[in-house]
Design a protein that fits this description.
This protein is of the alpha/beta class. It is 31% helix and 25% strand.
Length: 437
């Protein structure tokens, strides 16, 4: 559902969450599979697709390029017919709304040897520069210029190269992988990203006929293939590890007990380890199901966000919410994005005792958070404020929930099924809500 600006969540907190929840497909994998489908002059079907505004935006991008798409929400599948593209331009109208759509650059330059793609948008969590993407394309033989907010990329031919990234950028790794699939010769990407979504993209590309090894390590090797060697594929996306971490946090933060299904536990090893050190209980029920619980106040813990397999920056805000009521003093260091502490201001409103020193947050646990009006400053911070509201005394209103809709499918329904007292309302419906309570 695409949220209206006047919509908000109303939460009555301190209700322990209990029950079961099933995790949807990984947003950050699905979007890249959709872009990768552009490499093939054929039809591909991507399954386990979550119903998110980001998915709708990526469909808009593909349609603009001339691909034919069909989104079967009931079956959670997107069919993409990229046999004939009619454009090489991904406009600012869509790309500015979602950074992940910038990855069509690699597919277009690989297939068409030309692309015009708007500079990306998305959450304002700090500088996420595209220079690593462009340097990678240029190393393969492309020529890239930024003109009036658009990247113009051209290549007479793409030739495999040895590329060493300055930092293990997820987006740059993906764009280079996509461009290299149809390049002549062998490409080595060193110091590349190792996230599970990178592995899933490599598996998707291999299923289409690409030759890729090393995904999940710090060096990926792509041996270029001919266009006619690629073919359409039907592929099921991995579960969303960040959504899983969100529900783990919500259940633990409220002192509840719940079962989380359709999860790959090894994708959350370090996060799970920190939750255990805080005093929560996590039990593996089967390879794709865990039980989480907490029956006492959590303990303070320190962590530093790092590229995978380190502590995920996307779960930093959620962990901070849990630590805001933990015993003792915690220190959280955000090493990846300079603006990813904007939720601290919102937690202050709820009574949290947090001091920020540049990219460090010193958190002294308080007895309870107190409900009030807060806002979603970005996607993951928004989810964190919902969890804070579930933990808090009294009522919490969370605004700007369009951010949350970008990454969480049926968020309210899933929380309600766990027993949460949460509603989604429009501003003018507030009087009706007040009448109910």
């Amino acid at each position: 559902m695409r949220a209206e600006s006047s919509e908000k969540f109303i939460i009555n907190g301190q209700v322990p969450l209990n029950g079961e929840v099933s995790i949807a497909g990984a947003k950050n994998a699905v979007l890249k599979h959709m872009a990768a489908a552009l490499l093939v002059k054929d039809v591909s079907v991507i399954c386990n697709v979550p119903e998110l505004t980001d998915v709708e935006i990526m469909i808009d991008v593909l349609n603009e390029l001339g691909a034919k798409t069909d989104y079967n929400r009931a079956e959670k599948c997107v069919t993409i017919d990229a046999t004939n593209l009619t454009s090489i331009m991904a406009s600012d109208e869509f790309v500015s709304k979602m950074r992940a759509s910038f990855v069509v650059l690699g597919s277009l330059i690989g297939r068409e040897h030309e692309a015009v793609v708007a500079l990306p948008g998305g959450c304002a969590i700090g500088a996420r520069r595209v220079n690593f993407h462009l340097k990678g394309i240029e190393a393969l033989g492309g020529e890239c210029k930024v003109i009036d907010g658009y990247v113009h990329a051209k290549a007479k031919r793409l030739i495999g190269a040895d590329i060493c990234l300055d930092i293990p950028s997820v987006g740059a790794t993906e764009n280079i992988m996509l461009a290299a699939v149809l390049a002549e010769g062998v490409t080595h990407i060193q110091n590349c990203a190792q996230e599970p979504e990178i592995v899933d993209l490599a598996n998707f590309l291999k299923a289409m006929g690409a030759d890729i090894t090393g995904a999940g390590t710090n060096q990926i090797t792509i041996t270029g293939v001919k266009q006619e060697q690629l073919h359409g594929v039907r592929y099921t996306t991995i579960p969303d590890r960040i959504e899983a971490g969100t529900y783990m946090s919500a259940i633990i933060g409220t002192g509840g007990k719940g079962i989380i299904r359709n999860i790959f536990p090894n994708h959350l090893t370090i996060f799970t380890g920190k939750l255990l050190e805080m005093g929560s209980k996590i039990k593996l029920l089967d390879p794709n199901t865990i039980e989480v619980s907490a029956n006492q106040r959590l303990n303070a813990e320190n962590f530093i966000t790092q590229p995978y397999p380190g502590f995920p920056t996307d779960l930093q805000a959620l962990a901070m919410v849990l630590l805001s009521t933990a015993n003792g003093v915690s220190v959280v260091t955000e090493s990846l994005y300079e603006n990813r502490f904007m939720h601290i201001n919102e937690l202050w409103k709820m009574g949290a005792n947090i001091k920020q020193d540049k990219n460090h947050a010193i958190i002294k646990g308080v007895e309870n958070l107190v409900g009030t009006q807060v806002t979603s400053t970005d996607l993951r911070a928004g989810a964190a404020m919902v969890v804070a509201g579930l933990m808090a005394i009294g009522e919490t209103e969370v605004g700007a929930i369009h951010h949350i809709d970008r990454g969480y499918e049926n968020f309210v329904n899933k929380l309600q099924n766990l027993g949460a007292k949460i509603e989604r309302v429009k501003e003018f419906d507030r009087s009706l809500h007040d009448a109910k309570i």
